[in-house]
Design brief:
single chain, 295 residues, mainly alpha, MetI-like fold, 13 helices, 2 strands
Length: 295
Amino acid sequence: MTGSLRPLRGERVGVLLLLAPTLIGLAIGVFGSVLATFVLSFFDWDLLSPISFAGVSNYANLPQDRMFSSALVNTTLFSLLYVPLTLGIGFAVACLMNRHIRGISLLRALFFLPVVSSPAAVGLLWSWIFAQDQGLLNSAITALGGDPVSWLGPKVILYSVVIVNVWGAIGEAMIVFLAGLQAIPRELYEAAKVDGAKPWQRLVHVTLPSMVPSLFFQGVLSTIHAFQAFDYIYMLTRLSNGNSTFPTLVFSLYRTGFRFFRMGDAAAQAVVLTGIIAVFTLVYFRIQKKLGAEA
């Protein structure tokens, strides 16, 4: 390669040979599995009996599946709280971390630590914090003279799982927003100061417009995470019989496929979940494109 990052004609074969293992693995492992799941959604299969064609019956039966319907409602309510809270708190933390002070790197690492922590270990820790008997929160409440709260009970469970998942996602959002904040030219802030803009005016008229791409990017990631939420929630809400007190779409998919071995139904749920995420992603990009055109 000379004077350009593009390979010369004679080098392309070598580049393709080097990339071939990765490209083949990507084609088989990602695109192949997606295609296989879509095809399987039109069949009945329990891993033991011969596979049989079912047409669209797996999709037609989804509205009658009480677990799937409950999981869809739970996941939607969870997403409505999780996405804006993750964006808002993550942006606020990024603004606080966008400073040049001693120890700031350590603080950023501490906020990012939940992202790389084991979900199973973190889930067990939060289970102890939320436990009704001898839990950390209820111990503090009773020490102050209050009554214990059933944090994982049906009335509060939604808010409890949102708190845990937002806590685990703030680090990722902080990194994305921090990158966006540090890419804003300082001249814009200096010009705003010269014009007499107050801090909140600089935030509204300089920071937020410049952060639109980062906000939409993190919005897409947070929406995907919300509809794929499983590990923290299952660790907090699992029952001894393998069920969950707060089933989500991924839990319903897992339960249908790997407990009842209805692989066709599970594949149909996976296709519907993928479709929901794809629709939200397209909506995000349409809105971002429209805002960019108006700007």
